[in-house]
Amino acid sequence: MSEQLADRAAALDAADELAGCRKLFALDDATVYLDGNSLGALPAHVPDRVADVVRREWGELRIRSWGESGWWTAPERIGDRIAPLIGAQAGQVVVGDSTSVNVFKAVVAAVRLADPTRTEIVVDATTFPTDGYIAESAARMTGKRIVPVDPEELTGAVGPATAAALVNHVDYRTGRLHDLPSLTAAIHRAGALAVWDLCHSAGALPVGLDEHRVDLAVGCTYKYLNGGPGSPAYLYVAERHQGAFDSPLPGWTSHADPFAMTPGYRPADGAVRGRVGTPDILSMLALEAALDVWDGVSPAAVRAKSLALTDFFLQCVESYVPPGRVECLTPREHARRGSQIALRCEDAPRVMSALIEKGVVGDLRRPDVLRFGFTPLYVSFADAERAARVLSATLH
Ligand SMILES: Cc1ncc(COP(=O)(O)O)c(C=O)c1O
Ligand SMILES: Nc1c(O)cccc1C(=O)C[C@H](N)C(=O)O
Asked: What does this protein need as cofactor (predicted)?
């Protein structure tokens, strides 16, 4: 059986139109890296670019680099590089701050854009914790009430009291994909604003923010966008909302004339309005370089490979692993699956440590979930087969 699946993996790799992307990353064949949904791998050309930023732009040009090296405009320039990956026209995405900070900006701004008589903020009950914590604080500050709702029940839960809904596009734990077009439409029918967290979908599948008329969105860049540890996040504000977007963090770099340094705040137009303070240039320019790996790659091709990889991994797990030893938490239907496979397993902490020891790097979400992230730009079908084979050996 394992020979047949290994042959099948070789055939799938030979036919893979994205196979050539792997060499763009600093990866070694000894390791199967299935943790790109936590920290994406390093694109091989990034260290030289970062060295140039440090030595020449900072070391030699110093303060001149804000203008001459394009530092000042980096947040919107890099936002425009991310925009096509999330289905947004240029001018609506700004890069900076952490995802958590952008969740705060987006939720408070959504409440301020909504009908003020509405009293509730609906929050994905299965959310990655930071979104829930921040939304709770945003609700207290704006005098609203949090209503936690499973995204699968959201359509019936939003109504005339809903000001805004904050939903994760893909569940960080189970890999369940939530139906962004239909949920956004339901939120709009209720007269509320839709705020999406794209951390686990951007770079793994098409998002279609403009097409589906999403109001606001946030996402990190260190997972499928490979920006590096702690690389800055992004904020999308649909063009139709930009004029009324009222940031709860109106720092000086979002001012219409920041160097006037006047006491009165006057917001800039466009995506700039989502900025707060001085951009974190070293991380930001590492991210900008990392985005080069997307040149000529379409999100549709990435999605097709992601589904093929996760299908194949599940097929290998089913063939190799003794029945009943793991339970797949990730939906089988393609329409409900992101780019990871989550397996529940009784002795998950021991199993994940043993897997990492044997060169198969996934991660553990306590108490009992083994997570395997499939980054289509650098994970191969041979990797998927090997991961399942090593998992099986670890479980026996
Ligand atoms: C859905 C989601 N939102 C937010 C975050 C993290 O936010 P931050 O970038 O502020 O650490 C993560 C992962 O860390 C996440 O998975
Ligand atoms: N952002 C992380 C970090 O700084 C350290 C360790 C892990 C992370 C993560 O991204 C966790 C991730 N959001 C998750 O889905 O679990």
From this structure: pyridoxal 5'-phosphate
Q: Which atom of ligand 2 is nearest to the CA of 39?
A: 10
Tokens 């099948």, residue?
Answer: 8
Question: Which 8-state DSSP code applies to residue 55?
Answer: I
- Confirm or reject: Cβ of 100 under 6 Å from ligand 2: no
Buried residues in 180-190 as b, exposed as e (16+ CB within 10 A): beebbebbbeb
Is 252 marked within a binding site?
yes
The separation between the first and the last C-alpha atoms of the chain, rounded to the nearest angstrom, is: 17
Helices (H), 296-337: 299-320
The residue behind tokens 């239909």 is 182
- In the chain, the domains with their CATH numbers are 2-30+297-395 (3.90.1150.10), 49-294 (3.40.640.10)
- Which pLDDT band holds residue 64 (cuts at 50, 70, 90)? very high
Q: pTM here?
A: 0.98
- Measured CA to CA, the distance from residue 110 to residue 246 in angstroms comes to 9
User: Is 254 within any annotated ligand binding site?
Assistant: no
Max Cα–Cα distance, the chain, nearest Å = 72
Q: Is 188 annotated as a binding residue?
A: no
ipTM comes to 0.97
**Residue 38 CB less than 6 A away from ligand 2:** yes
Residues 6+ apart with CB under 8 A from 251: 275, 276, 277
133 in catalytic set: no
Query: Which protein residue has the closest C-alpha to ligand 2 atom 15?
Result: 172
Instruction: Ligand 2, residue 363: give the atom nearest the CA.
Output: 16
Q: Which pLDDT value is given to residue 396?
A: 79
Q: Is 153 exposed, middle or buried (0-12, 13-18, 19+ CB in 10 A)?
A: exposed
CB 35 within 8 A of CB 373: yes
The C-alpha atoms of residue 31 and residue 52 are separated, in whole angstroms, by 29
Active-site annotation holds for 128 = yes
d(CA 205, CA 339): 8
Q: Look-up: residue for tokens 């921040």?
A: 134
